[in-house]
Write a structure and sequence with these properties.
Layout lengths: L2 H10 L7 E6 L2 E6 L3 H6 L8
Antiparallel strand pairs: 1-2
């Protein structure tokens, strides 16, 4: 692939914001990325703001 094609492809790429889901832990609601909901529920990741 040529250098110009690579640069053109990179210029088109845009990051998207993660899809947030609301989970309830100890009576409090937290918004976390949807793909990490299971990890937060199992206690594998610290909750945001704690």
């Amino acid at each position: 692939m040529s250098r110009s094609n690579t640069r053109h492809r990179r210029a088109q790429w845009k990051a998207s914001t993660p899809d947030l889901a609301v989970i309830h832990v100890d009576g409090r609601a937290y918004q976390v990325p949807r793909r990490l909901v299971r990890a937060y529920a199992r206690g594998l990741l610290p909750l945001p703001g704690s």
